[in-house]
Specification:
By secondary structure, this protein is an alpha+beta fold. The chain is built from 9 helices and 7 strands; from the N terminus they run βααααββααβαβααββ. β2 (68-73) and β3 (76-85) form a beta hairpin. InterPro entries: GNAT_dom (IPR000182).
Length: 199
Amino acid sequence: MAYDAAVPRLETAPASWEAVEKLFGVRGEPFRCWCRWFALPGKEFRSKAPTELKELLRARFDEDPEPGVLAFRGGQAVGWCAVEPRANYPRIERSQLLRAADLPPVDVGTLWSVSCFVVSPNHRRSGVAATLLRAAVNHAFNNGATTLEAYPVDTSLRPKAAPSDLYHGTVSLFVESGFSVVSTPIPGRAIVRVNSKAA
């Protein structure tokens, strides 16, 4: 999107529960999932109603650090990026993607994952995802991560990928933000990583 002085600039911050609750709203995929898809094994996730999933995410805000970051425009939350230690995402750790991957070794105790983006429909294609990703990198490294990992879609191979897949982000988004592709175990999907300069 071209620069428009009338459009408030994006600002980011560690997520607060009240802003996440408002952003996720009362309909659509974020409201049904509450970003707990990767945090629960499949059978357990399927057994829970959206209200239960919502409470599980809310409970994460009682812990430290916050489980994600938010982007704001004009004081309104317009995007969320979930970022936590990979150990908090058992479905990722057991995923076909990781099982098929040949990955360089890292310290799994300080390995974090970017698992999900939510961008308000009226603010898509306006730089929100890239801004969120930069904030997620800083959030992870400021809280002890030495490596940050993600699992984006390669839209050069999957140009018709649906929004239901693109919540992972795209390979180009991550590469432009300094990540490197470390494995492509499944056509159209990649595993990308960036290391802390302090690592």
